[in-house]
Amino acid sequence: MAQLSTQEVMLMPEPELVAVLKVMSLDNLEQHARGLMKELGSNHYAKLMSLLLSGLQKERQKNNMSSTERFSFVQNTIRDFLPNKALMSDVYERLATIIMLIIAQKYRAILDTK
After folding, report:
1. Sign of the CA dihedral running 24, 25, 26, 30
2. What's the pTM value of the predicted model, to 2 decimals?
3. Residue 53 burial (CB < 10 Å; 0-12/13-18/19+)?
4. CA distances from 11 to 14, 26, 28, 90 (A)
5. Nearest Cα residue to 81 out of 102, 107, 58, 99
6. Which residues contact 30 (CB under 8 A, 6 or more apart)?
């Protein structure tokens, strides 16, 4: 499959997108996360990732979060971090999904249960 643009990621039907994201390289996932963040008004990918990783680690130390709770935590952190609140839509959910895949690939230990 040819490399997708961020606009294609935003518009692709969800079932098709999920299948594509699962086989996408880490570099492409990060590129799309940055692109979606830019669409939502922020260029601070590293800062968001730092907030997410430290928050997930703290939550992990307190209790074992389910995958649904982790996803909600990521969505809420993204919503609170990004300046463009008016666009609360499936773009946020797509960004959260991409970021969860990045975290799963790069930082597996944070998601693993004790």
Report:
1. negative
2. 0.81
3. middle
4. 9, 20, 17, 10
5. 99
6. 45, 102
Closest CA to 25 of 95, 93, 112, 106: 106
User: How many other CB atoms are there within 10 angstroms of residue 34's CB atom?
Assistant: 19
- The pLDDT tens digits for 14-72 are 889 888 998 999 999 999 999 989 888 899 999 999 999 999 888 877 777 788 888 88
Confirm if 111 and 105 have CB atoms less than 8 A apart. no
Phi–psi pair at 66, nearest 5 degrees: -75, 165
What are 81's two structure tokens? 């971090």
For residues 110 and 24, which has the higher predicted lDDT (pLDDT)? 24
Q: Position 59: which residue type?
A: E
Phi, psi (rounded to 5 degrees) for 50: -60, -45
Block residue for tokens 């609140």: 85
Q: Which of 109, 112, 74, 80 is nearest to 95 (CA)?
A: 74
